[in-house]
Amino acid sequence: MNNEPIAWMNKDDSSLSFKNHGVGWQPLYTHPADLTDEEILKEWTWKYSDCFEDFLLQFARAILKRASEK
Hints:
With 70 residues, the protein is α+β, with helices and mostly antiparallel strands. Helix content is 40%, strand content 14%. The protein is built from 2 helices and 3 strands. It is flat, with a radius of gyration of 13 Å.
């Protein structure tokens, strides 16, 4: 499996680019990520709020499960 990012996302405004522009850009991959609940919640809190934590974790786990079945 190729572990190279296919694109980069700006953490400030969620814009996308096909090249890394440095600080504030995170890589995006084609393969499913193995994330902990804490990592998922960190991203959620960064952009949204924690009022839907249980729903978010169930939703994220369902997405990761479905992606791993492909």
